[in-house]
Design a protein that fits this description.
single chain; 428 residues; mainly beta; Neuraminidase; 5-stranded mixed β-sheet; 5 helices; 28 strands; 9% helix; 44% strand; globular; disordered N terminus
């Protein structure tokens, strides 16, 4: 009887060795056994190779349960494993099988040097009052911009911009891609049909006087960076928000043709690389202008509009506008009363925004900055069905003196929180 080897967490479990013929459903793995390998009284000669029969489906199942960073290390185990882990089918099944996670990101030294982007994530749990975030990666020389939405989560990748620099990263694999854009209003999109990432940026300045049309650049990504850059045109408009990618389309709010004119949502078709339509919308949807909060709600584009009419610095009511039919330009409106007031002050440190919902359908409100040096980081989950709200502490988000000292955090730290992010092992 063979003894099982002890393995570290995240590695493959030992499989009993059996001598039998290898079928086409099985793979043969060779492992070198030393003289003192504990294999009974058989031949213990050095360098002997034993056949470990691993069924293919078991191999796939085992690998799919491992963290993305572990899989990246296993790429060098063998050519077979490299081909399997990098195969389109395995990447797609891995993404589909993983439960949603939350991602918290923040930058230190907003008004000074050195800048650094911290990306943390953790598993979501329904009904809990606390969650734990673990540090996935840091990216040097990056500062999150001032404003509402800081970054977007698109099919396992995170995207943010720093002036004319656009940064895309994958927390599961550690891959980071940085490239130059001709404007700051760049948005990341994903085409689920062709499994292709593309970025959309506006070339024509919003300050151009009465342009007859606007030029946009479409940046196709892959193979470690930019594959191609093409240009498309659209009727003139004045963008207000960053884009949100939903089901292969990028949406962003704008005034058309000039600021203060007709409120619209521009719809860009990622796959066919064209401005599909201008979707007219009630003015109340864009009441907050650049602070308009675009989210995905049950697979549809939606906008969270805080009602700050009473005090101006906080809200205990918000409106949820949902795009029901893009072709007919039809919107629905729901009003929700909160059991407590949430801050929405012009001061960046006193504002809660929503960047989406979790898998359970809760609308999540999160702060735009860290609350202070080594202070607890809280987000609020509001259930539209029960009308209940719960405060959830995210442990690990720069909430200790040790963390601030180790990474040299100072001053105001911009923060962003994405409540529904799926791990991906895809590589650009």
């Amino acid at each position: 009887m063979m003894k099982r080897k002890e393995h570290e967490k995240g590695s493959l479990e030992a499989i009993p060795l059996k001598k039998k013929m290898v079928t086409h459903h099985q793979k043969q793995v060779f492992c070198d056994e030393s003289k003192d390998n504990g294999v009974g009284s058989g031949d213990k000669s050095p360098g002997k190779k034993l056949n470990v029969l691993l069924p293919c489906d078991m191999e796939v199942e085992t690998l799919s349960r491992l963290p993305g960073k572990s899989l990246m290390k296993f790429l060098c185990v063998s050519k077979n494993w490299y081909s399997l882990i990098r195969s389109q089918r395995f990447v797609a099944s891995y993404y589909a099988a993983k439960p949603s996670r939350f991602v918290a990101a923040f930058t230190n030294s907003v008004f000074g040097k050195p800048e650094r982007l911290f990306i943390m994530s953790g598993e979501e749990e329904e009904g809990t009052s606390s969650l734990v975030a673990n540090l996935d990666m840091t990216i040097p020389s990056v500062t999150l911009p001032h404003g509402s939405a800081k970054f977007s989560s698109v099919h396992g990748f995170l995207a943010c911009f720093d002036l004319s620099k656009f940064i895309i990263c994958n927390p599961s694999t550690g891959q980071v891609i940085t490239f130059h854009c001709k404007a700051t209003g760049t948005s990341l999109g994903y085409d689920p049909v062709d499994d292709q990432f593309k970025a959309l940026t506006q070339v024509t300045s919003i300050y151009a006087h009465n342009p007859s049309s606007m030029v946009h650049e479409v940046i196709t990504l892959g193979r470690g960076g930019v594959v191609s850059r093409t240009q498309v045109t659209s009727p003139p408009h004045h963008p207000l928000t960053m884009g949100r990618c939903i089901n292969g389309f990028i949406y962003y709010a704008a005034w058309a043709p000039i600021f203060g004119a007709t409120p619209v949502f521009v719809c860009f078709d990622v796959r066919h690389e064209r401005i599909l339509s201008f979707i007219t919308t009630p003015k109340d949807v864009l009441l907050r202008g650049a602070f308009t909060l675009l989210i995905e709600y049950k697979g549809k584009l939606a906008v969270v509009v805080p009602d700050c009419s009473k005090f101006g610095l906080s809200f205990n009511r918000f409106y949820l506008w949902i795009l029901e039919d893009a072709t007919k330009h039809e919107w629905s409106k729901q009003t929700f009363e909160l059991p407590l007031s949430l801050p929405f002050s012009p001061a960046a440190g006193e504002r809660l925004i929503s960047q989406g919902t979790n898998k359970a359908g809760d609308i999540v409100f999160s702060p735009t900055t860290l609350p202070g040096r080594a202070q607890p980081f809280y987000v609020f989950y509001f259930n539209p069905d029960t009308k209940n709200i719960r405060r959830v502490r995210i442990h690990g988000v720069a909430d200790t003196e040790e963390f601030w000292s180790r990474y040299g955090l100072t001053g105001i730290c911009r923060a962003s929180f994405s409540p529904q992010h799926a791990d991906s092992i895809a590589s650009l």
